[in-house]
Design brief:
- Its EC number is 2.7.2.8.
- Catalyzes the ATP-dependent phosphorylation of N-acetyl-L-glutamate.
- Pathway: Amino-acid biosynthesis; L-arginine biosynthesis; N(2)-acetyl-L-ornithine from L-glutamate: step 2/4.
- There is one protein chain.
- The chain has one domain: Carbamate kinase, CATH 3.40.1160.10.
- The protein is about 45% helix and about 20% strand.
- The chain is built from 9 helices and 14 strands.
- The strands form 3 sheets. It has an 8-stranded mixed β-sheet with strand order 5-8-2-1-11-13-14-12, sandwiched between helices. A 4-stranded mixed β-sheet has the order 7-6-9-10.
- A hairpin with an 8-residue loop joins strand 6 (about 135-140) and strand 7.
- The chain is globular.
- The protein starts with a helix and ends with a strand.
């Protein structure tokens, strides 16, 4: 590379850092909950990049919380074990055998892999599930789906204690019932409930689409709750985007300042969303 080109690159990097200063100040000591999807975990480079971004958040004064999924890994192990799944309306029924596999994969394999990735980048991550310290108490979402839970009580004291020790919580979406049952909880739902209980400044839902699009197919970068509801009624928001926007609405109504549906395929999407003017997805406010 020519010296002039290198100088131009350095100047661009310095300008980016300078422009980020107001956002760095804005999010100092803020709580940011990030939902990290299972589909993004299969690539070691993507995992390492995500881990670096989370460590950077902690280094600049943000309190990040990672809530993860792991659907593809659960499916793989169920297949290997020969456990057949029943589906109702396209949703998996989580019976006693399946929920054991869910807990094994989410609280074990996936959770520890993310913890290891963050620690490898210089962070201090601690893995836990919604069962630890009764962080996420659940009731059955619908009896016909078995051990699929809906959070009814979130006790975030353990998360605040980890913040005080400069730790990064990594939470598996496995909840506990009133009678000690184990519940499988949708990752987005768990992230929204935890973010609301923490009164987080931001909830970031990383997904594999650009965000919410209008009727013309254009990305909408900021929406109010009423606009989301109207677009849903009109069928503009449909399919897999509906549960994500529903999670966003529940979160902001529960005390989260804003929720952004972020395109996790974009490199450093979390940093772009928090520390640049244009962001990296669709932000929903109450």
């Amino acid at each position: 590379m020519k010296k002039r080109d290198m100088t131009r690159d350095y100047m661009a990097a310095a300008r980016t850092l300078s422009e980020a200063l107001p956002y760095l100040q804005r999010f100092n000591d803020a709580i940011v909950v990030v939902k990290f999807g299972g589909n993004a975990m299969g690539d070691d480079d993507a995992m390492a990049s995500f881990a670096r971004d989370i460590v950077l958040l902690r280094q600049v004064g943000v309190n990040p919380v990672v809530v993860h999924g792991g659907g593809p890994m659960i499916n793989d192990l169920l297949d290997k074990l020969g456990i057949q799944s029943e589906f109702i309306d396209g949703k998996r029924v989580t019976d006693a055998a399946t929920v054991e596999v869910v807990e094994m994969v989410l609280s074990g394999l996936v959770n520890k892999r993310i913890v290891q990735a963050i620690n490898a980048q210089g962070g201090k991550a601690v893995g836990l599930s919604g069962k630890d310290a009764s962080l996420m108490v659940c009731e059955p979402a619908d009896a016909k789906f078995g051990f699929v839970g809906e959070p009814v009580e979130v006790n975030p004291a353990v998360v605040h204690n980890l913040f005080e020790d400069d730790m990064i919580p990594v939470i598996a979406p496995v909840g506990v019932g009133r009678k000690g049952e184990t519940f499988n909880v949708n990752g987005d739902t768990a992230a929204g409930a935890i973010a609301a209980a923490l009164k987080a400044d931001r909830l970031l839902l990383l997904t594999n689409v650009a965000g919410v699009k209008n009727a013309a197919g254009e990305l909408v970068t900021e929406l109010k709750a009423a606009e989301v509801e109207e677009m849903t009624r009109a069928g503009v928001i449909s399919g897999g985007m509906i549960p994500k926007t529903e999670t966003a609405l529940q979160a902001v109504r529960g005390g989260v300042r804003a929720c952004t549906i972020v395109d996790g395929r974009v490199a450093h999407a979390v940093l772009l969303e928090l520390f640049t003017e244009h962001g990296a997805g669709s932000m929903i406010r109450a």
